[in-house]
Amino acid sequence: MRRKVNRTNQILELITGEGKIEVAELARRLDVSQVTIRKDLDNLEERGIIRREHGWAVLHNGDDLSARLAYHYQEKELIARRGAELVQDGESVMIENGSCCALLAETLTRTHRDLTILTNSAFIASYIRDREHVQIVLLGGIYQPEAQVMVGPMVRQCAENFWVDRFFIGVDGWSERTGFTNRDQLRAQAVRDMAGQAEQVIVLTESEKFGIRGTVPLNLKNQIKMVITDDRLDPGTAQILCDQGIEINTVD
After folding, report:
1. Alpha carbons 244 and 252: distance in angstroms, whole number
2. Is the pTM of this model over 0.85?
């Protein structure tokens, strides 16, 4: 299904395609004033998705989670909104590191009240630090600066003090043989440790991840109850997941 692309997504497509682009060139390509483009860029910069640099709009370093927010932003935002619909005011939820997860946390702070968000992501904790109506619990551990995430045995020790209905995670890949995967052993173990304190695990991911074979299986067995993804998920893959008792929730 072809989606209507709004101006924010058009801007992000241009920036991610080129790495950096002049503000004047953005205005010309999108046929709007530079004043309008600057307002759009101000909003994106405030949300940590891009940065401004002497008349240019610049994508963050590709290894930074801020940069990953910009890729397939429209799909990720829709996925995050659908995930937020599952959460009630006053609820405690656990959220793992990742771009869809970061947008979920940001969405929850705009649409819900009196939430407690438990996360091992220093990026997410910082991303929503100024939002009202939310208590942030950052699980301790060894800090991985490139992913801005906490890992190691302290994550499990901290998580064991809590119990939640829903734990939202991102993934780096999936195959029929291995299931969902991560590319880092320590981050994968942190997900397993956190998943032990949740009634159900919900995967937030773009459908293209199902074509990637990751290195480290998450081995969550029957804990994953739902996958929220876009409507480009291969029907054969969807059937495999359904046969495993996983609900498929697609956005379009």
Report:
1. 24
2. no
